[in-house]
Structure formats: structure tokens, C-alpha cells
Amino acid sequence: MTFNTPSSTKALLVSLIAAYTLTACKPAEQAEIPTPAADTSTEAISPAENLNTADAIDAAATQIDDAGFMQHVRVLASDEFEGRAPSTPGGEKTVSYLENQFAELGLEPAFQLNGKPSYRQAVDLMELTVTNAPTLTLTHADGSEQTLAYQQDSVVFSSRTGNKQALDSSSLVFVGYGIVAPEYGWNDYAGLDMTGKTAVILVNDPGYRTPEGELFKGRAMTYYGRWTYKYEEAARQGAAGAIIIHEDGAAGYPWEVVSGSWSGAQYYLLTEDGNQNNLAVEAWITEPAAKRLFTSNGLDYKAMVSAATQPGFQPVELKSTASSTLELTSRQSKSYNVGAVIQGRSNADEAFIYTAHWDHLGKKSVPEGADAIFNGAQDNATGTAALLELAQAFKALPQAPERSIIFVAVTAEESGLLGSKHYAENPAFPMHKTVAGINVDGMSTIGATDDIVVVGYGNSEMDDYLRRVSATQNRTVVPEPTPEKGYFYRSDHFNLAKKGVPMLYAEAGLQIRGKPTEYGQQESDRYLAERYHKAADEIHPEWDNGGILQDLYAHFVIGVQISDSDAQPQWTEGNEFKAIREASLATN
Fold first, then answer.
1. What phi and psi, each to the nearest 5 degrees, are found at residue 543?
2. Does 165 score more than 90 pLDDT?
3. Nearest CA among 576, 567, 554 for reference residue 435
4. Which residues contact 560 (CB under 8 A, 6 or more apart)?
5. How many percent of the chain have pLDDT more than 70?
6. Would you give the DSSP letter of residue 215?
7. Which one has a higher pLDDT value, 392 or 330?
8. Is the pTM here over 0.85, yes or no?
9. Which residues are CB-neighbours of 267 under 8 A, at least 6 positions away?
10. Nearest Cα to 569, choosing from 285, 353, 328, 247?
11. Is the dihedral of CA 209, 210, 211, 217 positive or negative?
12. 505-530 as b/e: b if 16+ CB within 10 A
């Protein structure tokens, strides 16, 4: 395979892939963290002199190599790390591994912990586990009952603390997409008193079924389409519970992702009141179960979905109730974001940030003989390994960039972007001093590509930086092919974007070099069906880092270009984060 990177890295990358082996390595023993190596890269250099020339950048980029990358992935995705769930032995091993690696590379700790410099930023969590297998029982007007089996037809959980949470014959109301969006003139709860009732909600937003862009942002999902928003809004409306109807296409993933992700321990940021303002019961049900519910109410599911997509939709009170009893255990726990810094040589108070989440789903209760460890090799051992490779490349530059570089591996992404939310509220560098950043999540393992996909294409000038460096690789920057899946709102860059920081989330596309046109889409679909959020997300025989090495070269060059300048990337006109950024800069 070939790589259209600048010539000084091309030969190395080709030879690395040609010699590609998945060499096993043993996780580092947990020990005292090494003292960061002395940094002599800026000695005797005039502040005005910049040694980070194009050739020097290319030379430093050779530190990003296949063997080193895979060594990290094999450790992080090993059974010994138990799926890297927060606040577990496997999670602790992950945190220790990362801080040891950052220290060995000579990076400085990004945080303070117990009054001392630390690579760890404590994130206080509430861990809730449903200990029974609660069914969701729907009772209809004729007295018939529809019992939805746990994980098979429904998943029921709660984000409130307490030994028990329940719905007891709670009246059901179909509220369409469950959205209140004044800027779109949309209110699915208009005229409703939801006290004690349970909302039945469609996933995604009305634009999903109006791809021409007539409603919301057309095919591209808005934040209103995310499940997190729907539960939050139902709680604001005073509901006792909310049930989201799962559809593979509208959700962007199959039912097995829901049943796997929402069973077992769930994590929430610790609050003083134990989230008592949240819903008592939050649930998902399958589309077939929803169709039976509507049929039992004399309604056609397809017709009701169509009605919910029309402006002025009126909610429908169903003649059915919902009951479920959840037995819960809860405990406070602590997990950690892991962060490291290369101090800038002249504008050290400003920073460029790289983020990736280190956590995955841990171990699950599964049938006897099944694989219980959700290793998360692609999601997101790849992104976590990427941070370490990028850090190594930055340390290989002749001198530190003008601005600081910060690498933050965040926890509890799989539980709702909790680690990045905590970081955004408690940053090592103020948000108005964080000039821009790149998030790395679930990198492609199907080979080198002719394209690179931007999730949230057109949001900011970060696309222009990517377009320029991608051109040197003979790659074309393209929009995400499935904006309806809402990936921009499903990874950690979103929490920084909400604070106004221009963030780039881009990865190798689907036009795989040397493969038939349809190969990339087929493999992407295969990953989603067979491995995503499943125990099968492990290193596999077809694993190919060609696209990953292309991406990391681009991510590195962009970071150097911005951090070694006084550039201030901007959000594009009309973007919802532009005003936030401008206000942040104006008031600080």
C-alpha cells in the first residue's frame, strides 16, 4: 500500500506497514511514575527563531509509527485491562498506564491533585447498577398486558440514586420527538401537564425524515435528536418516566448497542442531591414493541411517526399505562481524566488540545461461555494510543511550539461524555485560552484512504487546515456520509465546542486505496453490526492501520501549525457555537 504523505515520512510509513506485525507486549507494571525527562529542546534558542521548519515537522512525524501505535492498542485492549470501565481495576490500570507513558515521554502533568502536580484530574462519579432484570409492563385499555423482556424488548434504568425506582401504572403520552426548540418554532409538549406521566418518544429529530432540509437541519441530526436531550427535556416537563423508541436507522446503531450499553453499571457525575430532579425511570423499547403498543391503542405506528414530523404536531395521550420496578445499588466512585502538557515557548498560557476517551464498557453479565469483556480495541484504544503517538511526535520537534500543547485522555465518555464535561467545567487552560483542538475517537482500521471525513463538516475554519494538509496526502476532505446519526454530538469534542472552542473531529473515509468502491462502506457496516459496543471489538485479522497513520500525520501537522502561530481559528457564520466563542473572548 502507498501513503501520499510528504516524502520524508512516506518511505518510513510504507516500510512499517510492509513489516506490519501485531507484536504482543505485557502491560507495564504499576509503579511510581517516572519523573518527566528534562526538556532541553529550547536551550540557547532565540525566542524569535523558529526551528520547527517543514522538514523538521516531517522528521518529527516519523515518531508516529505502526509498531508503537499497535503496542499501545494491544495493552489497552487486552483482557488484563478488562474493558477499561471507569472506577474498576481495569480502569485504574488504564490510568496508571497513561500517566506512566506521558511521564516517560517527558511531558509535564496537566493538573493539580491534593495540592501537587498530577497527570490525574479526579472525576467524582455516581455508579448505579440495576440488580434485577426489570420488565416493562404496558397495560392497555382492554386490560391486556404487554410484557417487554429486559434487554430483549426493553432496557429500563434510572439515573436517580436510591434502592428502588418505579413506574406504577403511569399514563403514557406519545410526544413525537419530545422536543422544545423555540428557534425552530417547535414544542412537542405544548399544552401538556406531564406530572406523573411517561413520555413515549421517537429517536432523532424531525429533520431525519425531511432530508431536503425543510425542518431543523434536514438529514443532519441536531442536539435535539440525542437521547440525552430527550430524557433531560422530559424531566424538565415534570414527567415520571420516558421511553425512547429505538429504530436502527434513526438511532444510527442496532438494538444490541442499546441493550449492551445500558445494562450493567452506569455512571453519572456526582451531584449533591443524587440526581433527584432526573426521571425516575428512563427506558428504550424496540420498534416492534412500539408498533404493538400503538396497535393496542387503535393507532398506526407509521401514521403517527408521519404526524410527529409535521409542524404543529399535537401530542397524543394513549390509553395505556407503564409499570416497572427497578432494584438498584449505588456507590460513589472516582475516576480520572489523564492529562499532560508540553509548555509553549512564548505563549504558554494559550493551548491547543487533543482529546480522546480512554474508557469502554468493561465486563458484562453474559450467558455462560460467552465473552464477558468488552475490550474496546477500536473504540477507543485507537484514539487513546493516538494521543501517546502524537505526544511523542511533538517531543521530537527541535523546540516546543509557541503555544502549549495539552493531551487529555478523558473518562466516562460511554456514560454520556462525563469526563470531557467535567474537564470543560474545570479546564487546565481556560476555554478562552484554548485556541482550538482535535478529538480522536474510534479510528478506522480498514486501510489507507483517498478521502478524510469531517464530522460536523463546515462548522469552522479547522476544515481549512485539514484540507491543506490532506492535499499533501492526495486525500479529499468530505462531509460525513451519515449526518443523521449525530456523531458530532456523540463524542468528547462536543463539550468543548459548547464552550466555544473550535474542535475538529475527522477520520479516514470510505474510499479505501486498492479496494473496490463499495469496500469501505461494507466494512463500516460490518463493524457497526458485528463489533461496535460488543465484546467482539478486539484486534482482528483484517486490521489495517493505513488510514490511522494518515490521520495522525494530518492531526500532528495541524496542531503544529496552529500552536506555532498566533492564528485564532473561527467558527463559520451561522454556527451555533460562534456567539459563545465571541462572548468568551470579549469578556476575558
1. -55, 130
2. yes
3. 567
4. 52, 57, 394, 397, 401
5. 92
6. S
7. 392
8. no
9. 86, 87, 125, 126, 127, 128, 333, 335, 412, 415, 416, 418
10. 353
11. negative
12. bbbbbbbbbebeeeebeebbeebbee
Alpha carbon 483 to its chain's center: 15
Residue 2: predicted pLDDT: 29
* 3-class DSSP assignment, residue 338: strand
Are the C-beta atoms of 231 and 281 separated by less than 8 Å? no
Exposed/middle/buried for 399, CB within 10 Å: 0-12, 13-18, 19+?
A: middle
d(CA 113, CA 127) in angstroms, rounded, equals 22
CB-CB neighbours of 271 under 10 Å: 14
How many Å apart are CA 345 and CA 400, to the nearest integer? Answer: 6
Q: Where are the alpha helices (DSSP H) in 153-247?
A: 227-236
pLDDT one-digit tens code per residue, 10-48: 333 333 333 333 333 333 333 355 455 444 343 434 446
pLDDT score recorded for residue 575: 85
Grid cell in block for residue 463: 476544515
310-314: Cβ within 8 A, 24+ apart: 311/185, 311/186, 311/215, 313/176, 313/188, 314/190, 314/191
CB 172 within 8 A of CB 239: no
| Omega within 30 of 0 (cis) for the link into 375 | no
Alpha-carbon distance 218 to 221, whole Å?
A: 7
CA distance 179 to 201: 9
371 beta partners: none
Task: Report the C-alpha gap between 431 and 427 in whole angstroms.
Answer: 7
Residue 428 · residue 120 · CB < 8 Å: no
Place of cell 412537542: 188
Tell me the three cell numbers of residue 217.
437541519
Taking a C-beta distance cutoff of 8 angstroms, is the pair 338, 313 a contact? no
